[in-house]
């Protein structure tokens, strides 16, 4: 008997492993083999002599005046914060270049975003404008980067009219998600004098998301089996629809660039393809034969926001604002000056590339629906049986009908199958949430990462054992019936309903678990 149970369990585990293997794509990112080598570790901008560079990039050289402004948009308006360098006479400086900031993902208040960067550039002699992000057209599900570019261009128009600003020297600074917007702005308005792309993903959002998840998981040290979930989660159509912007391609807009581009990355930023992004910007801006000059800088130990640990907190890398200020104010000499690529040596492990699309479970509504339907089925049968038993005891006391029942040992096996399936699903969700927290906090915890995965898989095996016991009990009941015994797998419609609902619900949950890699056997 034990051997039969073990053999059946093994067959179920292999079947679930095969189901998981064929139900969706694998994850096999391509390693980076040709790494960028900066010309020098010094990030200082070339094109001007040392004395001039020190003067042009002198952060703190001027007092900064802050003024709240209102920026009219199509059908609404947003606030903004203008920062202007002020001379010793208390007057704003004349004929200064200007920079408009474009926010990354999430909300962005002008009073909370880019504070160090915008203030530092203003203190070096550049007028900066940080607008509030428009939120009435920006949600997690729906974003239109071309429309957002049109909104941000209103800030460019406004900055050009500010006293002391050289209208011909107004550029745009974008960070992270904002770097998908900035090239659109410059392509649509070639009079934008320059663009600064900070922590630019360059590749479409879906590819960047898969790259970031892969990088975070590697930093966290998760088992190899977990990586299979990346294309299945990122590659599918997310539940509820929307998210069309996930496949937005900025490269056609980069090909239309005409103004100088400064690209900056922190080498401690695991979420961005920091080598691939720089190469792609350089290549795409040269497609039309009239290169937009590109300067690339890598900052040692800097994170996604070009921040490093300083004075007990995270602050802007001390050389970053200096370099941006020198590059902007030294135009046109600094636009294409050597070295083109300088700073810390980047080390991107894998390429960000097209995410494989799930075949059968590519629709997130189906994935979520399978779990909901499975759990609902597991609940329906016992609830109906319980309700029937209550009615039978209270209203049908004199009924001669036989009470519903399951074959000997089947009830406990079905209960174990249902509880095992649900417990494994709950454990998997809890495990993924715990790993996500560690990944986002850049932490490692082998007890959670390795031990948690073992617990999830052991629960999955326990559910498979319960399934094997169900099969054994059913087989035994049928064998007894063939031998002439008055035995049935399930007697009475409530028992029959519970039996089939439990089987169908467990199958749906176990299939989902197999899809997400719980039953991987290296297949």
Automatic annotation (TrEMBL):
Origin superkingdom: Bacteria
Keywords: Hydrolase, Membrane, Signal, Transmembrane, Transmembrane helix
InterPro entries in the record: AB_hydrolase_Est10, AB_hydrolase_fold
Any GO MF annotation of the entry: carboxylic ester hydrolase activity
N-terminal signal peptide: 1-23
Residue spans crossing the bilayer: 366-391, 412-434, 454-475, 496-518
Protein name: Alpha/beta hydrolase family protein
Biological classification of the source: Bacteria, Bacillati, Actinomycetota, Actinomycetes, Micrococcales
